[in-house]
Amino acid sequence: MLNTSINFGGFYESYHSSNIDTIIEGFIEYDNESNNTEKSENDYDINYKAMHNEYIKSYVSVFSDYIKEKHDINITFFTPTLWSPREYNFNTDVIDCQISDYDFKQLKTVFLKDSEFHTYLKERTKSYDGYQSYYTYESALNDNEILSQFILDYILELSNNEYPFYMDNHEIYELEVILESEPELV
Q1: CA–CA distance, 54 with 175 (Å, rounded to integer)
Q2: How far apart are CA 48 and CA 30, in angstroms?
Q3: Residue 138: is it exposed, middle or buried by C-beta count within 10 angstroms (0-12/13-18/19+)?
Q4: Could you tell me whether strands 94-99 and 78-83 are parallel, antiparallel, or unpaired per DSSP bridges?
Q5: What DSSP element (H or E) covers 110?
Q6: C-beta of residue 57 within 8 angstroms of C-beta of residue 80
Q7: Each residue of 121-162: pLDDT tens digit?
Q8: Does residue 18 surpass a pLDDT of 80?
Q9: Contact, 125 vs 135, CB < 8 A?
Q10: Are the beta carbons of 127 and 47 closer than 8 angstroms?
Q11: For 158-180, how does the pLDDT look when each residue is reduced to its tens digit (9 = 90+)?
């Protein structure tokens, strides 16, 4: 198994946090209509951590489907976990996960033949005034964990340039709201 990360954009003031807010708003609206109440979000003890974990599980599933559809590669992301920085001023949330060596070999075979990927990798590993790259082009090509992250970043960038794969996906929008405890009836 190979450790890798998916730089999905995180939850801090992002499209993904808006998705979760929309799911919660729909839940509250339905709950109010069903019970003839007028509760607000403050009346619920929402377990955001659990919701984020369910969201990233759905996200990696949808991402896997996208890779299959667009690049004809079957890939499974194992043990997705959310890594969050202590402060969001320099980093954002990332999905840490694992892929099989076989899946990585498929990714590597497809993308190392892609001249646009090589252009992308050269640009992403280039240092310039005010920025020192952690990796050189050669070091990125020769370290499977680093290369896997660049390949996944490249796939995400392609997705975002056309239409993000998660935009209209029912698997993400049909997540359940997770509460710490059941709300009291008012």
Answers
A1: 7
A2: 19
A3: exposed
A4: antiparallel
A5: helix 101-111
A6: yes
A7: 999 998 887 777 888 889 999 999 999 999 999 999 998 887
A8: yes
A9: yes
A10: no
A11: 988 877 677 666 777 778 888 88
